[in-house]
Every structure is written in structure tokens, then in C-alpha cells.
């Protein structure tokens, strides 16, 4: 029995089995679990309700009967629609990895007249990330965003939609998209998950449009919608200053095989509230370039993983300070450094992928987010790839060209 996918529109059945078109007499039998409601005339659009399997009995003569199994796949339907949207497009679908980052150190150097703060930080991309699927949309009016988790905005307040709007504004592109965000990076974590999503969307839009912009232009434009977004257009390790938008690419200063564990309680820290409690006169005075030099020379240690936002974050969320202290105490030296990333509330343990036992045993921490991770970078003219996907011999990105 042959198996194929099909797509119905108002007048046609598209099937990989061309013999179906030559059958004169067709009868349908349905699997017991699913139902398909067809209009009485092919001039009307068939409506599908959870239809997964349709068996077609067809005959070219009274004595010659054949049976063909047709599988209806909603994802395949979307893919075929995307192919038909723009027959001249070089890319019709694209799936990309959207990694997050940690701040290996974070110094706040001054308060600016515009109300923001100047910082100096070693940003580094890590292997934890989301996946984002892009397909060309038949609509020339709007993007459509979906996600696998509740609470993520799906309108133009989402940084993905902001990034796509920015790209169209800067380039004049008329392409709109269906986007599905498979979210794994927790929000309110100090890991830059939303900023990474925006950078990934800009890179994707540029691929769909034949690379109308350079990566440098994408990086410069991205600062208009978020301070951390330009960093993701580095190669993965960068010394960032200003509000974070001044990005200096670095050779990877830290070994890729150095493991880490991320521990984030369900509570988030308000970035605005953390900065409100920041007292620059009480921050340490060590030169951030000294920290960068020591990391490049000697690697990670507790004394170089400085975060000026830790103290105000611990005031906002006292339980976060207790969590860090308990990790250090219970780790018994298994971690080279334990520190908070960004404005919180993720605590990072460098040197081991394993969380301390109390995280599993203590009821207070039953709802924490846990993930192991490692440092990664990207190659020139390529986007980031998920490390285990590469080990499994998967392609760096799932790119489907329109046929």
C-alpha cells in the first residue's frame, strides 16, 4: 500500500501518487479514530477535523481495484503552503537555534544622563536555547507567532515581532512570516532569551530576503529595540560596553569543555527594581579589563566572576542570596565559581554540570529550573547550532528551498 501526503484547496487534491488523478471511481473509507467532512461538490473547500488517515478505494475498471493510503499531515500542509507563497524565494522555511548567554562578569561603571547605566561585561553564548521555526506567510499584512508555553506575548510587544518589523522598516522587505517559538530558556532569568530570539529573527529575515543587509547592519539596527541584542551578532564571546550595545568580538577566552549548571528559582527579579537599588559608591572598583585579562590568562575563578547587580538583586529577592550561599556551601569545591547572571534570577555554577543534592531534596526548591550547559560560539556567516544536534550529524539549520 502506498503512502503519501496531500493538500486540498478549492479545486484540487495534490498527491505524491500521480495515479490518483487517473482513477475514475473513488470511494473513501475512514479510520475509526478520525473524521473527515467533505463538501458535496469539489467546488467547495473540504474541511478537516483531526484527519490523519484516509484510505482511498479506487478502480480503473470493474475488475481492477487498487487501494491507496493518504496521510494528512497539518505540518506538511503548512510547508506546502509556504512553498506556494513565493515561488521565487530562495528559502521558504527555516528552523534556527536561539541560544542564551551568561555574563561571566558584569561591572556597572556609571549612570548616564538618559537614565541608563554604562556597563562593562564579558558576555558568552551558552548551549541552552530555544528553537524558532520560520515559514513564509501568504499574508502581506502581518506575522503570526505561536509558542509552546503560556504567558509569552504573541503580539507586537514580543521582541521577535519587533525585530521583523524593524527589518522590514530598514530594508523595505514585504515578507511576513509564520513563526513558532519552542521555548526552553526561562523568562526573567538574566540569560537574554528574548534578546537572542530577536537577533535570531533578524538573521532569519535576512536569509529569506537574500541577505539584503550585512551582519554589521543587523547588529547596529538591533540596538534600537534592545541593549543586549547586538551581542548575539558577535561570534559568541564579546566584551560589551555602553548599555551593552558596543560589542567587541573576542577569541574564545574559556574552554568549550568547561561544564556548568544553571539553577533558577520560579521567582524573577525586576530589572528596573534591581537597578533602582543599585548603589555605585558601594560597588568594587576593580577594572573590568583586569578581570578580562585574568580570565583569558588563568580561566574562571570565583574572584573574577563579579556581578555588581548581585547585591541589589539579593535585596529584591532575599531567597536568591540564600540559594547562592547554599550552592557554594553544598558544592564542597566542585564549582570553580558560583555567581548570578545579568540582573537575575539565575545562579550559575561553573565547573560541574550537576546541581547540589539539596536542590532535589529540599521542598523549597522543587520548582526550580535546572539545566546543564557549556560555552559555545558560531562560525562566520553561520548562525548558532545546538551542540548535541551537531554531534548527532544534524545539519546546522533546517533550510528548505522552495521548489
UniProtKB/TrEMBL annotation:
E.C. code: 2.7.1.148
Keyword tRNA-binding: no
InterPro entries noted in UniProt: GHMP_kinase_C_dom, GHMP_kinase_C_sf, GHMP_kinase_N_dom, IspE, Ribosomal_Su5_D2-typ_SF, Ribsml_uS5_D2-typ_fold_subgr
Keyword Chloroplast found: yes
Keywords: ATP-binding, Chloroplast, Isoprene biosynthesis, Kinase, Nucleotide-binding, Plastid, Transferase, Transit peptide
Subcellular location: Plastid, Chloroplast
Residue span, GHMP kinase C-terminal domain: 303-361
Pfam families in the record: GHMP_kinases_C (PF08544), GHMP_kinases_N (PF00288)
One GO biological process term: terpenoid biosynthetic process
Enzyme class per UniProt: transferase
Pathway this chain belongs to: Isoprenoid biosynthesis; isopentenyl diphosphate biosynthesis via DXP pathway; isopentenyl diphosphate from 1-deoxy-D-xylulose 5-phosphate: step 3/6
MF terms (GO), sorted A to Z: 4-(cytidine 5'-diphospho)-2-C-methyl-D-erythritol kinase activity; ATP binding
Catalytic activity: 4-CDP-2-C-methyl-D-erythritol + ATP = 4-CDP-2-C-methyl-D-erythritol 2-phosphate + ADP + H(+)
Residue ranges of every copy of the GHMP kinase N-terminal domain listed in the record: 158-234
Cellular component annotations (GO), alphabetically ordered: chloroplast
Top-rank taxon: Eukaryota
Function description: Catalyzes the phosphorylation of the position 2 hydroxy group of 4-diphosphocytidyl-2C-methyl-D-erythritol.
Entry similarity comment: Belongs to the GHMP kinase family. IspE subfamily.
Name of the protein this chain belongs to: 4-(cytidine 5'-diphospho)-2-C-methyl-D-erythritol kinase
Amino acid at each position: 500500500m502506498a503512502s503519501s501526503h496531500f493538500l486540498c484547496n478549492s479545486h484540487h487534491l495534490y498527491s505524491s501518487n500521480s495515479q490518483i488523478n487517473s482513477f475514475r471511481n473513488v470511494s473513501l473509507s475512514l479510520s475509526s479514530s478520525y473524521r473527515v467532512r467533505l463538501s458535496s461538490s469539489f467546488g467547495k473547500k473540504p474541511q478537516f477535523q483531526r484527519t490523519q488517515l484516509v484510505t482511498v478505494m479506487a478502480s480503473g475498471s470493474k475488475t481492477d481495484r487498487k487501494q491507496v493510503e493518504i496521510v494528512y499531515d497539518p505540518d506538511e500542509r503548512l510547508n506546502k503552503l509556504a512553498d506556494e507563497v513565493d515561488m521565487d524565494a530562495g528559502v521558504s522555511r527555516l528552523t534556527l537555534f536561539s541560544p542564551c548567554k551568561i555574563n561571566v562578569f558584569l561591572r556597572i561603571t556609571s549612570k548616564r544622563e538618559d537614565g541608563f547605566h554604562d556597563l562593562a561585561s564579558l558576555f558568552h553564548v551558552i548551549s541552552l536555547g530555544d528553537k524558532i521555526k520560520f515559514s513564509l506567510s501568504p499574508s502581506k499584512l502581518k506575522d503570526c507567532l505561536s509558542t509552546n508555553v503560556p504567558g509569552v506575548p504573541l503580539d507586537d510587544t514580543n521582541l521577535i515581532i519587533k525585530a521583523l518589523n524593524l527589518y522590514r522598516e530598514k530594508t523595505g522587505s514585504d515578507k511576513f512570516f509564520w513563526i513558532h517559538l519552542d521555548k526552553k530558556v526561562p523568562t526573567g532569568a538574566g540569560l537574554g532569551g528574548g534578546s537572542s530570539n530577536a537577533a535570531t529573527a533578524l538573521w532569519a529575515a535576512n536569509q529569506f530576503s537574500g541577505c539584503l543587509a550585512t551582519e554589521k547592519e543587523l547588529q547596529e539596527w538591533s540596538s534600537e529595540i534592545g541593549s543586549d541584542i547586538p551581542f548575539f551578532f558577535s561570534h559568541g564571546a564579546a566584551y560589551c560596553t555602553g548599555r551593552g550595545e558596543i560589542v567587541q568580538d573576542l577569541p574564545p577566552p574559556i574552554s568549550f569543555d568547561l561544564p556548568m549548571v544553571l539553577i533558577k528559582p520560579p521567582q524573577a527579579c525586576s530589572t528596573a527594581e534591581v537597578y533602582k537599588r543599585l548603589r555605585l559608591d558601594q560597588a568594587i572598583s576593580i577594572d573590568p579589563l583586569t578581570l578580562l585579562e585574568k580570565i583569558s590568562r588563568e580561566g574562571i575563578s570565583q574572584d573574577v566572576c563579579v556581578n555588581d547587580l548581585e547585591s541589589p538583586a539579593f535585596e529584591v529577592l532575599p531567597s536568591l542570596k540564600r540559594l547562592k550561599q547554599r550552592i557554594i556551601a553544598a558544592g564542597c569545591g566542585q564549582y570553580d565559581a558560583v555567581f548570578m547572571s545579568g540582573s537575575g534570577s539565575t545562579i550559575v555554577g561553573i565547573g560541574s554540570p550537576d546541581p547540589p543534592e539539596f536542590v532535589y531534596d529540599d521542598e523549597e526548591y522543587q520548582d526550580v529550573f535546572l539545566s546543564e550547559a557549556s560555552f559555545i560560539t558560531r562560525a562566520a556567516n553561520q548562525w548558532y547550532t545546538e551542540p548535541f544536534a551537531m554531534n548527532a550529524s544534524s545539519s546546522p539549520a533546517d533550510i528548505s528551498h522552495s521548489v
